[in-house]
Amino acid sequence: MASFRDRSDAGHRLVGPTAAVLPAGWPVTVVGLPRGGVLVGAALVEGLRALGRTARLDLVVVTKVLSPDFPELALGAVTEHAAVRSAAACRLAGVDDDRYAELTADARRRLGERAAALPEPVTPPDGAVLLVDDGLATGSTVEVAVAELRTEVPDWLGLAVPVADATAWQRVRSLVDGGVVLLQRTPMRAVSVDYADFTQLHDDVVRAALARWA
C-alpha cells in the first residue's frame, strides 16, 4: 500500500516534523527540486504559514548526468555552480573520465534549457533555507542542490523529504544543518512506489505553484 496519496499529501505530512527542526522565529525559504519537489514544497509552505511561520517557495534547477547505456542510472548531477559525480555508478556503467566530461557537457546544455523554461530562482534572503524533494534514492540530485545552495551562504540550510534510501539519507543528512525524513527504506525501491498518485508533472504546474507561494 502506498504511503502518500500524492505529493501534496506528502508535503502536508512534513509540516509538523519540519516546523520542529526549523530555527524558531526565522523566515523560511522552501526550495523545491523541479518538478515534484516544488509541489511537495508548496504544500509545506502552505502548512508552515498556517502555523504562523513566514515562508515562501523557490526552486533550484538540477540536471542529472545520464548513462547512455543505462538511462535509469544517474552518473552524477549538475547545477549552475556545482557538480557531483558518482564514482560507483561510473564504474558500473563503464564510463571513463573523457566520456564523463562529454556527458557532463550534455547535462549542462540540458540544464540551460530547463532553467530557461522555469522562473529564475531568487537569492534566498536572511533566514532558514529548506531544500525539499519528493523522495531521495541515490542522493546525487539532492547532494548537488545542497552544494548549489551553499554558494549563497545561507544562515541555516535544512533538508526535508517524505521518503529516502536509508544509506543515502545518512550521507546527505551530514551535509545540512537539520533534516526531516518521514520514511527510510532499505533497500530503497523507486520513489513512485510510496505514492498512490505519482503523476508526471509539467512545467506549468511548477510555475503555478511558484506564482502562488513565492
How would you describe this structure to a colleague?
This protein has about 210 residues and is α/β, with parallel strands linked by helices. The chain has seven helices and eight strands; from the N terminus they run H-E-H-E-E-E-E-H-H-E-H-E-H-E-H. The protein has helices spanning about 5-20, 35-50, 85-95, 95-115, 140-150, 165-175, 205-214, and strands spanning about 30, 55-60, 65, 75-80, 85, 130, 155-165, 180-185. Helix 1 (about 5-20) packs across helix 2 (about 35-50) and helix 2 (about 35-50) packs parallel to helix 7.
Map the helices and strands.
Blueprint: H1 7-21, E1 28-32, H2 36-50, E2 55-59, E3 63-66, E4 74-78, E5 83-85, H3 87-93, H4 97-117, E6 128-132, H5 140-150, E7 156-165, H6 166-173, E8 178-185, H7 203-213
Parallel strand pairs: 1-2, 1-6, 6-7, 7-8
Antiparallel strand pairs: 3-4, 4-5
Helix pairs in contact: 1-2, 2-7
User: What is the CA–CA distance across the termini?
Assistant: 34 Å
Low-confidence stretches: none
Shape: globular
- The tally of structural domains comes to 2
* CATH first level of the largest domain: Alpha Beta
Number of helices: 7
Helix content: 40-55%
What class do helices, strands and sheet pairing give? alpha/beta
Order of neighbouring strands in the sheet with most strands: 2-1-6-7-8
- Overall pLDDT metric: 93
Named CATH topology of the largest domain: Rossmann fold
N-to-C SSE string, H for helix and E for strand? HEHEEEEHHEHEHEH
Beta fraction: 15-25%
CATH architecture of the largest domain: 3-Layer(aba) Sandwich
Biggest sheet statistics: 5 strands, parallel
E-strand count? 8
- Overall radius of gyration: 16 Å
